[in-house]
Automatic annotation (TrEMBL):
<feature type="compositionally biased region" description="Low complexity">
    <location>
        <begin position="1"/>
        <end position="13"/>
    </location>
</feature>
<dbReference type="InterPro" id="IPR037401">
    <property type="entry name" value="SnoaL-like"/>
</dbReference>
<dbReference type="InterPro" id="IPR032710">
    <property type="entry name" value="NTF2-like_dom_sf"/>
</dbReference>
<feature type="domain" description="SnoaL-like">
    <location>
        <begin position="42"/>
        <end position="134"/>
    </location>
</feature>
<protein>
    <recommendedName>
        <fullName>SnoaL-like domain-containing protein</fullName>
    </recommendedName>
</protein>
<feature type="region of interest" description="Disordered">
    <location>
        <begin position="1"/>
        <end position="20"/>
    </location>
</feature>
<dbReference type="Pfam" id="PF12680">
    <property type="entry name" value="SnoaL_2"/>
</dbReference>
Length: 150
């Protein structure tokens, strides 16, 4: 991860299929962020993400925004976060939604232990190119004060 400035190049006249985008975003939450096996997650990611996918993370606790570039690095970062919070599960936000417009998708999700599944609420803004995720941003909508306890 790095806080260095980065740029991405995307199509200026996007033509993405909304149903494909919705399907990819559903799988993005359930079978990527919800998958605990790093190898299985990596296989799923190959069909959903561009090799050079970029993930822009918020600066909740570190004070610095993080930029994660590349499928392998995104996979490793997801694994690191899962290891940091064992017993937490990601699900679609019951009040949330999946929305698409042109090549931009938004998916709302929640994260927490089984007894408080909405401890954290957030969304991903995803840019698509040729049916795959090119870049995505995490935005937290509800966060506990300080890092969540394990």
């Amino acid at each position: 991860m790095s806080s260095r400035q980065t740029s991405i190049s995307i199509s200026t006249s996007p033509h993405e299929d909304p149903e494909t985008m919705r399907s990819v975003m559903d799988t993005h939450i359930e079978s990527v962020f919800g998958e605990t096996d790093e190898a299985a997650r990596g296989k799923t990611m190959a069909s959903l993400y561009h090799e050079d996918v970029t993930w822009f993370q918020p600066a909740e606790y570190s004070g610095e925004h993080a930029i994660v570039r590349g499928r392998d690095n995104v996979n490793a970062t997801i694994q690191k976060e899962q290891n940091q919070f064992p017993g937490f599960y990601i699900t679609h936000d019951n009040e949330g939604y999946i929305a698409v417009t042109q090549n931009l998708g938004v998916v709302h999700w929640q994260l927490g232990p089984r007894e408080q599944p909405d401890m954290i609420k957030a969304c991903h803004y995803l840019l698509f190119e040729d049916g795959k995720i090119k870049a995505f941003w995490t935005a937290h909508l509800k966060m506990p004060k300080g890092p969540p306890s394990e």
